[in-house]
Amino acid sequence: MKITGVSFVAVTIAVALLTGGCGGGGGGGDRRLPTRAEVSAALLREADLTGYDQIQPDKEAVPPDGSDRPKCLRALNDLDYGTPASDTAAQARIEFGHSQLGPWIRQTLRVYRDDSAAGKAYERVLADLADCGEFTITWSDLARSGTERLRETTDPRLGDRSWAADIQVELGGFPSGETKTLVQRGRLLVVISHAAAPDAPPRRETEDITRRATDRATRALDV
Fold first, then answer.
1. Can you tell me the distance from the alpha carbon of 167 to that of 173, in angstroms, rounded to the nearest whole number?
2. 8 A C-beta contact, residue 19 and residue 1
3. Distance from CA of residue 206 to its chain's centroid?
């Protein structure tokens, strides 16, 4: 069985270890949810990025199931791997890679019925991650564990409101870094996980990718 990490970067590093490698608008009212195809069409494309190719997610990978701070584990796992109830939001994901050791990009796009529902989901994530400065990640069926350190940053300032954090991962002696951003614009939630080993990509690059993702989704879904 392959393993994944609580953050996007831990996924790739964990799999590499096991295989022996190194490795605004749109306000009120209960509105129709778009189809998955419509949400998928609003995701980033290779043409929006420089030096990245789309990659397929590993369907055999599984996330960690243990932590000394389970709320932190659930919150970050949900952003990268979770699926909201079909009657509350429509969702699509896409992944890109630059090389074997990154950087990697994972985008999750969720569209809720209205701005209020998206806002509540945004606030719930921030509340769940409020006390997640450092925590362990473990797999019950594998003799492997790691440590994640999360530090909230002040940028980017995107959409109606946004949140970002630097995440450092230590897994099996392999360090890696990630910047995770969450943006609410109207009834949209845009999540970008931008990771590499041993260090996270430049934050300015992550902000540019997040801005492009948010603007593309806003235009495509007429938010």
1. 16
2. no
3. 12
Per-residue pLDDT of the chain (223 residues; tens, 9 = 90+): 444 444 555 555 555 444 444 434 445 556 899 999 999 999 999 999 999 999 998 777 777 889 999 999 999 999 999 999 999 999 999 999 999 878 999 999 999 999 999 999 999 999 999 999 999 999 887 777 899 999 999 777 899 999 999 999 998 888 999 999 999 999 999 999 999 999 999 999 999 999 999 999 999 998 7
- Distance CA(192)–CA(162), nearest Å, equals 11
Structure tokens that stand for 160 in this block = 């109606």
Parse the chain into domains and list their residue ranges.
Answer: 2-25+33-220
pTM recorded for the entire structure = 0.86
Which CATH fold would you assign to the domain 2-25+33-220? Protein Transport Mog1p; Chain A (3.40.1000)
